Amino acid sequence: MERAVSKLDGVQEANVNLATKKLGVSFDESKVSVENIYEAVEKAGYKAVDDTALKTLKIEGMTCAACAKAVERAVSKLNGIGDVNVNLATEKLTVSFEPAQVRLSTIKQAVEKAGYKAVEEETQVDTDKEKKDREIKILWERFIISAIFTVPLLYIAMGHMIGLPLPRLFDPMVNPSVFALTQLFLTIPVVVMGYKFYTVGFKTLFKGSPNMDSLIAIGTSAAVLYGIFATIQILKGNTGYVMDLYFESAATIITLITLGKYLEAVSKGKTSEAIKRLMGLAPKTATVIKDGKEIEINIDEVEVGDVILVKPGEKIPVDGEVIEGSTSVDESMLTGESIPVEKNVGDKIIGASINKNGTIKFKATKVGKDTTLAQIIKLVEEAQGSKAPIAKLADVISGYFVPIVIALAILSGLAWYLIGKESAVFSLTIFISVLVIACPCALGLATPTAIMVGTGKGAEHGVLIKSGTALETAHRIDTIVFDKTGTITEGKPKVTDIVASEIITENELLRLAASAEKGSEHPLGEAIVKEAEEKGVDFIKLADFKAIPGHGIEVKIDEKNILLGNKKLMVDRQVSLEDFEKTSNRLAEEGKTPMYVAIDGKLAGIIAVADTVKENSKKAIETLHKLGIEVVMITGDNRRTAEAIAKQVGIDRTLAEVLPQDKANEVKKLQDEGKKVAMVGDGINDAPALAQADIGIAIGSGTDVAMESADIVLMRSDLMDVPIAIQLSKSTIKNIKENLFWAFGYNTLGIPVAMGILYLFGGPLLNPMIAAAAMSLSSVSVLTNALRLRNFKPVV
Prior knowledge:
seven-stranded mixed sheet
């Protein structure tokens, strides 16, 4: 399918995930349309269906068939609508639509414009889950029916060989024709049950891209056709063919492979459990305040700006900002943070989190596909649909695998017949065994299933891995660079010391510095402003403000030119630091950041600001050391302050006095040393460095999930999640390697055995029924191994 779609002009990338049965395409709309992509998929022998939502609405006011037609017509005219069906008897409209193109409220409006009223049914349909459950049910029914006919067929065909009693009527020596015809009649229902293998198998074979179904279709068809030929010979009186009927092989192969497909479908369902859990987090309804009244509406109907009421114990429906009341909110389902977070007026809240003890009103800021939860689901789905580079080889082999197997089956069958001078029946056994034992499915499922379970497990731990490539690269990381502020430290600095020169008082120094920093957004500046507010200092109006990135600020107050910033700024402006050299060194060695204040070119004093280290920083760095990873800290702080903090938490290497724009360069220098580098930052000024690193890890950005520059997003501000991400990557890649080893090993050993290599050296010949059982087991074992990842527990 990838090959067929990639051939279209304008398609940049086509990516099929076998485990989820989804195709993702990025394409140029000016060159190729969605319809062209559909056609290409059809030509390859498959059917593409849009990711659609299915809704049932109750229609009020219909009286006759014309009404039903009017509603159907009105809804069909909208963009993004699939099937529209109005049942007059139940007064219900069933509509499938693309949520990205049309909203449910638009559908309701269309019904109202046509003169009727649409009311939502309570049932919420998870179409994907329904489809999967239906597929599992059908496969189970097909297996049971096949088994009901296959068991007696096996008994009649093989029972007498192992001494089991057989009624005289079915004895091949007494009634050869009854023996043959009974087997034929028992085989027909099994072949009918396995019709999918034939319709899909032959269709793809004739389209030139045969698949696993093609192998089964050719193998079992050959067995059935030979059996029919042998039956005709027996009816003609040629009873020598009585031991060469191949019906039981065909029926057993179909039954066993149907069982394998059933087990595979059940396992596949389990791989996407994490997504299902995430989808189930969102509440179905919201209580909106309209004209002073509380109205309960469906969550799909909530719009930005709506005022929503949430009572204790209820789930918060969408993202928003508290406008009334205070409460504590349990956000653990999204961030993994077990302690409830206090929320007051002006605080942001996340949809799907649980309101614990207060009643609040909040204004919706993000709804539908823009909410944090929707973004997380989208990220996890995209990651599960992406491919890891390790899968490329398996993909290439899968593309040529089936034609090669068909060629090998024909060649080995002919070789035994023509060169080995064996009978036609012997050659047919070889031909069928080779076709049936080959398992391209195990190859195709090895990587996507492990990635699905791995990324899903990550989401449970609040670690969002954005792609298969990121998952694979993370296990090779040997150096991790942490940004200091907000990552290793809390990013909430406090003023610790105020040292004034003889030209100014401490209070006046604080007043000038705080007035200057009032317009700044720098955390150190905010700390100075906060200190002044707490001490009740009044602020002076600024005449001029200029930020100097990486250095500080320059302002004019009361005709005085004031500089406030780091040592670099003072050196650049030739301000003498002589009198304060000792003081600034002492403060820096205590892990504090000295901020210099100069008035009209003369140093007026130092305000020292310190940031507290996060409680888990030291533990996280110790865990990374256990994993054999070197830890580097990067900061704009002066070297003394930086090294004081580095010593506190056990950093191996410190890069100090680095300007924000130079962080990416520092990461590149580490890469030039041959290191695989991960960068951990809070994403504000770290974006270029996150993009430069082999893996960018954005931390504590739970409300800004789709951080473009990061490969991994950590929902909590907890550094312990960094080693969790690395360990998860290592476990997943190990699992993928096991899967690929098993899939390749199985096929590499199985196919030669089926070709008769053991028989050549005096060993046994492989029975096609055993080949079918082995083939079914190989897919299931790959899936079972991938599901072991669900037991992943990080080592701390």
